[in-house]
């Protein structure tokens, strides 16, 4: 009588048709909108209203809204990384600083044009992103947060310590003009509109990347190494891409921020700015990345309204940020399958997606 042996089916071969079909089934719930196209178009409608508001106001209000657009563009990079790789970065303030001080140094001291300085800033930020991406494969979620906080601290120290280049703690004035594609932008209105265009392009690009093959590989790497291997994707490459995109979004936003405000100081690119980017980035993970534009504008308006309250404005603002941030973080954690909360595990959601691969 022949004995029967029981074998456990492993994941399908990475390059097989079955393996790719499993990947599509495993990721369909992540790439599809849960609330439908109506909600996505609604988010974009709100974003367009905010952009239109930025183009119609004048004076100091325009600078406030233009700054909100810069924060939105940088926060979208954080949101894209969080939504795909499930990694939370506290280094976006440093990435903004790379872009902003790149403009200050290269255009102000060495008289480069805006695009050339932007390219150099993006390359520097990309190198930092590569280092973070390689490290993110080796460390769990909460250690990655500490790592990015350390990068943020190093960036702040460089901005304060390189006095001959950055002006140190006293700061320095930046060229208030941008020459781009034959256009000479030198007014607050023109620069604010440029910031709004950058924010819209960032949201569109993030929405597109999230639904491309690269986005699916990043989702697979963030959810389960087994699922990533089943798709033929390299978890290391996907993590590097996610971190590079986060850094590049921040550097581009910083490059626009420098001429908009006209003056830079290291205090502007503190850990507090990184936390603000995280808060807006978490909002952008809901439905559409265009929500970051709406959230950034509301946050900036809240800051301006509280400035009239007096000495307790900081306490009120901090309390609102804590309450809203905690609620959003818990909601995002449930959406991403993090049963233990925002910082629950090194590989959140892996169990559900691993079982989807193995069971098929």
Describe the protein's architecture and organization.
The strands form two sheets. A two-stranded antiparallel ribbon has the order 1-4. The protein has a two-stranded antiparallel sheet with strand order 2-3. It has helices at 17-31, 36-56, 60-85, 92-109, 114-136, 141-161, 163-166, 188-211, 213-223, 225-230, 235-261, 271-284, 291-306, 313-335, 350-359; strands spanning 172-173, 178-180, 183-185, 263-264. The chain is built from 15 helices and four strands. It has 360 residues and is mainly α.
CATH architecture classification name? Orthogonal Bundle
Could you describe the largest sheet, including whether it forms a barrel?
2 strands, antiparallel
CATH class: Mainly Alpha
Q: Would you give the CATH topology?
A: ABC transporter involved in vitamin B12 uptake, BtuC
Roughly what is the average pLDDT, rounded to an integer?
Answer: 81
The helix/strand order is HHHHHHHEEEHHHHEHHHH
Secondary structure layout:
Elements: H1 17-31, H2 36-56, H3 60-85, H4 92-109, H5 114-136, H6 141-161, H7 163-166, E1 172-173, E2 178-180, E3 183-185, H8 188-211, H9 213-223, H10 225-230, H11 235-261, E4 263-264, H12 271-284, H13 291-306, H14 313-335, H15 350-359
Antiparallel strand pairs: 1-4, 2-3
Helix pairs in contact: 2-3, 2-8, 2-13, 3-8, 3-9, 3-11, 3-12, 3-13, 4-5, 4-6, 4-11, 5-11, 8-9, 8-11, 9-11, 12-13
């Amino acid at each position: 009588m022949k004995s029967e042996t029981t074998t456990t089916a492993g994941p399908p071969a990475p390059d097989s048709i079955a393996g790719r079909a499993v990947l599509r089934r495993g990721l369909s719930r992540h790439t599809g909108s849960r609330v439908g196209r109506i909600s996505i178009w609604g988010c974009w409608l709100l974003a367009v209203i905010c952009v239109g508001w930025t183009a119609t106001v004048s004076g100091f209000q325009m600078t406030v809204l233009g700054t909100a657009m810069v924060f939105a563009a940088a926060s979208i990079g954080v949101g894209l990384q969080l939504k795909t790789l499930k990694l939370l970065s506290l280094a976006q303030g440093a990435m903004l600083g790379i872009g902003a001080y790149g403009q200050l140094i290269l255009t102000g001291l060495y008289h480069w044009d805006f695009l050339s300085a932007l390219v150099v800033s993006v390359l520097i930020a990309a190198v930092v992103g590569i280092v973070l991406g390689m490290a993110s494969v080796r460390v769990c979620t909460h250690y990655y947060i500490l790592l990015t906080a350390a990068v943020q601290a190093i960036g702040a120290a460089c901005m304060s310590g390189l006095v001959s280049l950055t002006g140190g703690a006293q700061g320095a004035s930046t060229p208030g003009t941008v020459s781009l594609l034959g256009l000479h932008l030198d007014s607050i209105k023109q620069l604010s509109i440029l910031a709004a265009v950058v924010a819209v392009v960032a949201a569109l690009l993030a929405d597109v990347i999230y639904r491309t093959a690269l986005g699916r590989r990043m989702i697979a790497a963030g959810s389960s190494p087994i699922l990533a291997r089943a798709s033929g994707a390299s978890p290391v490459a996907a993590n590097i891409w996610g971190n590079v995109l986060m850094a590049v979004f921040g550097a581009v936003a910083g490059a626009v921020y420098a001429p908009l405000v006209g003056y830079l100081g290291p205090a502007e690119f503190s850990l507090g700015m990184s936390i603000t980017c995280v808060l807006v980035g978490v909002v952008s993970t809901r439905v559409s990345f265009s929500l970051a534009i709406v959230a950034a504008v509301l946050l900036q308006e809240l800051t301006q309204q509280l400035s009239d309250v007096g000495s307790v404005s900081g306490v009120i603002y901090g309390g609102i940020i804590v309450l809203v941030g905690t609620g959003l973080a818990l909601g995002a954690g449930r959406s991403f399958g993090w049963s233990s909360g925002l910082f629950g595990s090194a590989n959140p959601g892996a169990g559900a997606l691993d079982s989807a691969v193995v069971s098929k």
